[in-house]
């Protein structure tokens, strides 16, 4: 091949054309990780031997005419809060029992294996998917491949920076307040938070059970559709996973926005502090691309945005504290300092606060469903600035980062971040495309159509890395 494939779809085509083998793909990506991972902090555990064995089996199967589908032979990675059969699950913490998850692999992971994927290892996160990196703990600090002095974002950091840096083609992330979409935006790739309950959460270390979502991260909307096809659907081990039919998400990727009505929500970022004007400008340019591609673009306003955002925060801290309460009391020092501070905040919320938060979330659902009766998709900024620097990363610096993701977790509706360009400082930013429950197909179709007339999802960091 003249150049290696960049997307799952391209790699799948190359495998079937005999232009490359899964073993060659996997070997090259593992070698790439040898070079970059010490700088980027992508992996917690690599499973090289198992990955190469899976790649060899994928090649043998394809040669024998056994084709498991578009993920067959494709190197992928898994965020280290999902249980896998071939590596420990630590949630990047000294707290979690090493035997956690040993009984059963997460269904989302098992489904990727069944689809023929080659799993290369477990990727770094924030401790228990909350907080910030604590350099005093023995774990990597995930860095942004676009500028390694900056952060990859939380908490699906390793999956996002690994995709952006070309260490694997895609992988699994989780999203409770934005942890798929935020690092995807900051690293210049695509990440989808499905409808709550669309992908089973069994085998996933909980953060806030009524908000946790499992979903795909990859370069493109098309690739996310391929991953979601494999992962979605009810599983009996998770009674909260929905018994709702799963469509073929790739069948909706028509590549056109003609007849699609997109509601643009600007209110939240135009009045938010610390939004980088160049990030806002990239959003306006992206909206113009949507319009020129045939979408009917209209202005909308989510009047309950702030209320739902605050309700999501209250719910996160209250539910996280419930899960961690015993360990916080017994093993305070073993938690990273940022994680323990955030989780302990949940102790200050009352039952009344929690109930009011659920009321606000429900009121928000009613309002957004009313808006979605008039539009197909809602577009808004993902993050209003590029990645902050790792040096001095703390609550103060991250509070200056305008993140607009949590509302969609509180609603439980699908939301995807797609890359829309670079800030004036040369750092990626993203746009969210959001829809009603079980309408991931609309989000993926809009994102795919946008990516047919833009190429930011194919932009690569200036590797070899240096910051």
Key descriptive features of the protein:
467 residues, alpha/beta, Amidase signature (AS) enzymes, eleven-stranded mixed sheet, two-stranded antiparallel ribbon, 13 strands, globular
Summarize the structure in words.
With 467 residues, the chain is α/β, with parallel strands linked by helices. It has one domain: Amidase signature (AS) domain (Amidase signature (AS) enzymes). The protein is built from 15 helices and 13 strands. The strands form 2 sheets. Strands 1-3-2-6-8-7-12-13-11-9-10 form an 11-stranded mixed sheet, sandwiched between helices. The protein has a two-stranded antiparallel ribbon with strand order 4-5. β2 (75-79), α4 and β3 form a beta-alpha-beta unit. The longest helix is centred in the C-terminal third of the chain and has 26 residues, at 305-330. The protein is globular, with a radius of gyration of 20 Å.
At a glance:
The chain has 467 residues and is an alpha/beta fold. Helix content is 38%, strand content 15%. Helix 2 packs antiparallel against helix 3 (48-63).
